[in-house]
Amino acid sequence: MPDAPLRMAAVGLDHRHIYGQAGHMIAAGAELVCYWTEGQPETLPGFKKRFPDVPFQPLDDIFARADIDLILIAAIPADRAALAIQAMEAGKDVMVDKPGCTDMDQLHAIKDCVARTGRIWSVNFSERFEVPSVTKASALVAEGAIGRVAQTVGLGPHRLNRGTRPDWFFDRKQYGGILADIASHQIDQFLHFTGSTDAEITLARAGNYANPDDPGLQDFGQIVLQHGDCHGFIRVDWYTPDALPTWGDGRLTILGTEGTIELRKYVDIAGRPGTDHLFLVNGTKCEHMACRDVGLPYFPALIADIRDRTETAMAQSHAFKVMELALLAQRLAED
């Protein structure tokens, strides 16, 4: 008989990333059986629209259920670590929205809990795991299409959408800072594409240059990092202009010793329709690839990891290191 589907619950719906976490896991074969959230976050109607048959349950009841394998968490960032620890101590594996935590004490507590319980703590770095063009870029790099990776340049602009943002969005202690939050995506991609297991942060900056009435908001950040002869540059911001037809023109350029790959993940402002545009230039090719239909292997791999107790979706050490570096960059920017 085929294996029973993995069963999961959503805990904390404060960020709309929960839609992608749940939706992609369902597409990979998992079953969402219940949810809990505190209060009435702005995302709740959208969650109910997408998953109308999923009932609410009290948090303690969810953690007590023996038939739930995985907890999805997209709570207020400062609350995610405590919920993850509670879930793991109840015998559940965890997929948390980024940032997985907001300070080093939380990260240390998560590491201790993983070591003690043997549970999986996975962070859904959606700008890699939910982007088909990144899947294609990963395959090209692995094939040697651009030689050895020497640098990544990751750009993460976002639209502020002020009217839709809850109070915690403007509270530094609640969201963790722009580098710990948004730039964790680009740190993940640097480590992934360079094959690095660590990095040195050589520059970190964060500031508020356009929103003086919101002193808790950081609307600009940048990081320079290095590991051996691999280099990375990261810029993140909340400056996406209203005329852009999507929330941000996220880009990634991967410089290799024998070529380059550029990703225009969400829009091509040159006019090509749709998302997931990849441009490859090497010794024999100069071409555009449409990657919208390339798969998203993280989600089925996580299901397999939960079943087999493996680390094929993402190494546990990688999740820890990304958050460690993001938190270190945030601290350096604020010192």
UniProtKB/TrEMBL annotation:
Pfam families: GFO_IDH_MocA, GFO_IDH_MocA_C3. Coiled coil: none annotated. This is Oxidoreductase. Residues 135-262 form the GFO/IDH/MocA-like oxidoreductase domain. Keywords: Oxidoreductase. It comes from the Bacteria. Residues 20-125 form the Gfo/Idh/MocA-like oxidoreductase N-terminal domain. The keyword Oxidoreductase applies. GO terms for molecular function: nucleotide binding; oxidoreductase activity. The keyword Oxidoreductase applies.
